[in-house]
Amino acid sequence: MLTLKGKHIYLRALEPEDLEFIYAIENDESIWELSCTQTPYSKFLIKQYLENAHKDIYEVKQLRLVISNYSDIALGMIDLFDFDFKNSRAGVGILIKETSERQKGIGNEALSLLLDYCKSYLNLHQLYCNISEENEASLKLFSKHRFQIIGLKKDWNYVNGSYKNEYLLQRIN
């Protein structure tokens, strides 16, 4: 039986109360590189996004879930993006907000839960992700879950005055 509940964390839908949490993440310049963000987001825009977050993944081609602990503290987010029903694939992104909470198994547990969901509910044949060549923690995490590097995109992202390479990883179920 599938559940979005793990031993230490659970995945949940976005709620209006997540406005400040998402606002903080989307406007943290230190992580803009991960999402290719170039400009800040207003609370107004994020509120509009939250008002539409209930829409079905088949309609909006994206699913964003909050990673929460059992004290109901939001720790991060995990996304499916570019959902392609016809070809049975989607991209995956994950972020643990606080650096002090990273590399504690939260991302590992969240990714495991999401992968089970993708297989059981969405019947996805393949998933992919894009990871900076320098992001060793994410490369290790996704490799642990049978994602394989299938290519290197050279000079793919312009960050702080220089170009960085990015790996494309894929997992076929």
From TrEMBL:
The keyword Transferase applies. Residues 9-173 form the N-acetyltransferase domain. GO terms for molecular function: acyltransferase activity, transferring groups other than amino-acyl groups. InterPro entries: Acyl_CoA_acyltransferase, GNAT_dom. Gene3D superfamilies: 3.40.630.30. Keywords: Transferase. SUPFAM superfamilies: Acyl-CoA N-acyltransferases (Nat). The keyword Manganese does not apply. It holds the Pfam family Acetyltransf_3. This is GNAT family N-acetyltransferase. It comes from Formosa maritima.
